[in-house]
Structure formats: C-alpha cells, structure tokens
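Two quick folds needed for the group meeting slides. Do the first one here.
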Amino acid sequence: MKILFAGDASNLHNCLAQQLRQMGHEATVASDGSRWMNTHRDINLLRRPGKLGALRYLMDIKRALPQMTGYDIVEIASPIFLRLKPHRVARVFDYLKAHNTRIVLSALATDVVYYDACHDGHTFRYSDYMLGDEPSPYVGSSEYIANQQDNWHQPFMREHSDHILEGIDGAVACLYEYYAAYRPVLGDRVAYGGIPIDTQSLEYRPLTEAPDKVRLFIGIQRDRHVIKGTDKMLAAMKRVHDRYPGITELEVVENLPYDEYTRRMRDSHVILDQLYSYTPGTNALIAMAQGLVAVSGAEQEYYDLIGEKANMPIINVSPLVEGDIDHKLSWIVEHRDQLPQMARASRAFVEKHNASPVVAQRYLDFWKSLLATQ
C-alpha cells in the first residue's frame, strides 16, 4: 500500500510510517515534526513565527501538494492537521480527497467531537474539561485562553468539523477516549488503533532487585501543564519526596526533543504522566517499554476495549479522589521491592498491545476494509 500521513502528534504518524516501511509498504510523512519534539518527516511543514514565517509556510504547502497525490490512504492528524485557519485547512483537505483514494482521520487530539463528548455529561466521568459536573482546573486557566479553547463551540469551527466528518472515509482512534467520542458519530467507520511504540529501539533495562532509592520522573509540556495535570502530579511528587527524602529522587524535564526525552528517563523507575486520561499516553508507554512503572490513566473501560484481563500494570490515578496521587506514590515507595516485577509487567504490556507491528496491523486491516468498499 501507499500511505501518506498529513500532520503528526507525539511521533505517532512517524512511528507508524517507519513500521509500515519495514512491512513492505510505502509511507510518507508530511508534518512539522511535532514542533519541539523535532521528529522525522519526509516533507517538512514547520511553520515559523511571524508574517514572513506564515508566508513561507503557505509556499511550502503549495510546493508540497503535488507530492501528496496518488496514495491509497491519506491519514490526517486531526481535523486541523495544518497550522492554518480552518477554511484554508479545508481547501487542502478537499485537494487531498480529490487526488487520493481514501482519506482517514487520526483521532489523536482535541477536536469538536472530543470536546462535545467531554461536556455531554455521560461519555466520561472526568476529562480534560470536566470533573463530574464541575469544570476542571484547565477551564479558565491561562492555558485554556492561550490555546483558544472557546473556539471549539464557535460556528466556524463546527462548520469545519462537519466538512471534515462528511469527507472522511473513516477514523482511527489512538486512545479509548477518542474511540468513545467518535463511536456515536461514525459508528463502524471508527476503529481503535492505539499508540505505536517502537519497542525494538527502546532498550529494556529490567530491575533485578529493589532499588535503594525510587527515582520519579516527569516530563512537562510548557503550554499543556494544566490540561495534562502535570502541575498536580509535580506537586504530589514533591510532597512524597519531602515525606521520604532519603529513598526518593526526582527528575523534572521540560519541552525536550523526542530522542533526548527518551534518553533522560532511562535511569528512572517511575514516570508520572497524564492525570485526566482513561488511557496511558505516548510518554507513559515509552517509559513502560524501557522498564519504568507508569503512574497515569488506566481505567477499566480502557482494559475492556483492548481485551486485557490479566496484566494491568499502570498505576491508575483518579482526579476525582482527593490525595490519590500522593497515596499511590507513597505505596510505590513503601513497596519498592515490587518494582522489578512491575517493570517486567510494564514491558510485556507494551509488547502485547502497543508494539509498532501490532498497531500497524490494526491500521492496515482497517484501511483494507475501506479500500474494499466502493
């Protein structure tokens, strides 16, 4: 098959492309490299600041479009897969749809469909935006305002979302949350793909005995600190470190390129990732593949979706339970003799559910089903 990935997020499309090439397919990534992550892309669509940067970006896209034709599948990274206003994105989308066989949405980021599911009062118990019936700490924060989150319910954004939904042939969700949001909208035209992790390139360094000190690791995205819940997780880390100063160490990194980020976490034992998620994200899975224990989201709905009944190694923390992060971290420190077994279970989990060949095959199966229909 010949596949084009338009846009990327957290290296998901690039990781898939690398695996698909190993499986004998042709795959091209046109993206901005997930901004500061600077991940690999075949067609560079990085938008630089200022008016000159915007003009250059438009020219780059115009030059790239002839190279983005003749594919069996075009997989776009969200309805806003380019850093353009919606009406400009729609023009590029229409061009890609007209010059390729099938066009598919990667449900991998906030969009109108996910935003609505977070606010409908029944899809999720909690989300980035709501904790039960109350707004989350993210709503009204400087991040919320800076990221123009109010736009999701504006008419121009909803018109754009409708245009994309009417034009796509299907969607693949990388998380349980996106699958749950899109299933009522697209029905059988949405599949669960998961997040691909290149386990072969990530060195597994298993613990053989309980460590003298538990090293806790957290990576912060500067413009997503509150929505990810890393503000609360970092505060909990510090409190636990103060409680157990002799047997804990902390490492905090911020906005690192992908390769450096994976290197920096290697000598840690526990990673803290997303608080408001039902599902472990890319950071947690990368860490688990290297033998770290993840403190993140892992609700029963997620395990049910992937069919896992035996190995549930992620330490699930709930934003609805006061002090839950502190309690879970304290348990890990006090039971650090269990870290070697938990690390082995974490690696086995990623190999079974998120190794690149496993995830790529899910995508291929779904794409083939779309190509088989007229």
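Then this one, please, same format:
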Amino acid sequence: MKLAPEKIDDHLKGKWARAYLVSGDEPLLVQEAAAAIRSAARARGYDRVTWHVTPHFDWAHWLQASLNGSLFAPQQLIELRLTAGKLAAAGNEAIVFYLKQADPNNVLLMVSPKLESAAQNSAWCKALDERGVWVVVWPVTVDRLPAWAARRLRQRGFTATPAAAATLCERVEGNLLACAQEIEKLLLLHGPRPIDAQDVEAAVADSARFDVFALVDGVLMGEPARFTRILARLEEEGIEPTLVLWALVRELRQVSVVVTLMASGATFLDACKQAGVWDKRKPVIRKAVERLRPANVESLVQAALNVDRVIKGDRSGNPWDELLKLGFALAGQPLFGESLAVC
C-alpha cells in the first residue's frame, strides 16, 4: 500500500503494518517520515536495531539475526538504511524471504533514496507494497511549496496569511530544509500566533547561517574561499556529506538545464523560466552560467557521481576532500589544475 508522507501520522494511530519502506529524493521529508515511525515504535515499546546496507552487506547474517529475534527484546523495529535506490540479487531474495517468514512482533523499516525504476519493479519492492506500507516521497515542486509551507506553519501552531506563506517560500528560494528551519526560528521568536508577511520578512531577513545553502551560493558565485570556510564548518558540525552533495547536485542540475537551453538558443530569462529558477536565484545562477558550458557541466555531473561513490564506499577516498574538489571545480577554479574526468 502506498502512502503520502503527510498521512503517516494518522496511519500510525491505527493498526500497523509489519513492514514500511520510506523512499524519495527530498531528504527532509524522508527523514521526518522515518522519524515518525521510529517515535511511534518507541512509544509502543519496540527496541530499534539499525543495519546500514553497504555494497558488501551480509544479507544471510541479517536474515538470520532478524528472523531469530532477541531474548531481551520481544518487539523489535528492524531498520535497514539503504545508501542506493536499488538492491542486489541477494538483498532482493532476503527481503522477499523475510516478508514471508517475519515474526509478527517485529516491524521492518527500510529507508532509501529514490528507488531506481528497476528496483520499483523488483520482487522485494512488490512484496513490500503488498504486505506493508510504502511511503513515497515526491519532490515538492515550486507551485506546491506555498501549500506545503502553509500546512507546516499550521502544524507548528501558526495562523499564517497566504502572503506570509508565499513570502516565506520566496525568501528561502524553494529549499524545503531552509523553509523548515525558518519556521522553527519564527516559533522561537514569536511563539505560535497569527503571522503575516511582515513578520516573515523581519525574521528571515536576519538569517545568517553557515549551512549547505550558503555553501552552494558560494560555489555558484565563484567564491572558493567562502565555500572552503563553510564546508569546513559543516564538517566540524557533523553534517552528513550526503546532504552537502545533494545540495550541490540539486543546483548543478538546474544550472545544467539553463546552460543546455541557452546553448540551443534560449535567452537566460527564458531558460530560467523553463528550469523553474526563482527570481531571487537568477543572479546567482547567472554567475555560474557565465563560467560554464555544456561540456563543463557534463564533467561536473560525472565528478559528482564520483563523490557519491566515495561516500557510499564504492571507491576509496575522503568524502570531504572530494566535495572540496567538486566545489572548487564548480566555482571555476579546479584544484591543482585537475581534470574532472572520472575513472
């Protein structure tokens, strides 16, 4: 059974499924849906056991441990964290077998990036969809973001005017994580109460965060020193490199669309419109577009894939060093004159 993320809280108040899959390419919504399941399981007395699925994951060991259960934990939330949107044959078979033999006292929670098309049609995914709940997280598009922001404001106790929600979306330039952070800041500043566009303007205008979005702006503006400073701060704060890569790739994809359209004869403004670039983002995107050509963008995309492999352990290297190289290349100043070619 498929379920939208906003329906998960209501679902968890009723009869639970024996298995859950949370997948999508909006990290904030994936994280919050999974957290809701964990919280509800904890409230019902479940002990959580977490497994990280790496390229060489021992599925036989996982299956034996999960089916045998624990003498000290009669109820377990068995969490599988996938680093890729697919499973190898051994994983496919293990999940299908588990779903047929699972202890009814346990609940399986699988958390994954957006599933590849082959994975969506695989036996394990179909079996989970039939026997459990699949929380499908779709990207929140620009036109849906104001409604999402208004709903989140209500959840946090605000009575917000439509103009307040629209202003918030404009100021955070379409980033869900930034939007959620600003709502939390509004709650700290004002407490739950009616707010209008002026309240949002005053609060968001004072924001000066060292976060992934400031880092991305430094890259696009061609400011490697600023990028390096913020990247070091994020590493010190324990931010996952996956989130940093996601933010860089998100902007890279948008720049790629603009660059490609302009190479085909479109004006910058027309290309931005087709790519869904927010008005406030256009000066930043323009800076990047002035430096890049389609061939450069393709090399950067390949370099990002290389960083992804390093993060997942498929290639040797330090993820933060690789992110530094990618950021400098995107800023127009490749480190040591390196080529972006990927082996």
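Slide caption for protein two: The chain has 17 helices and eight strands.
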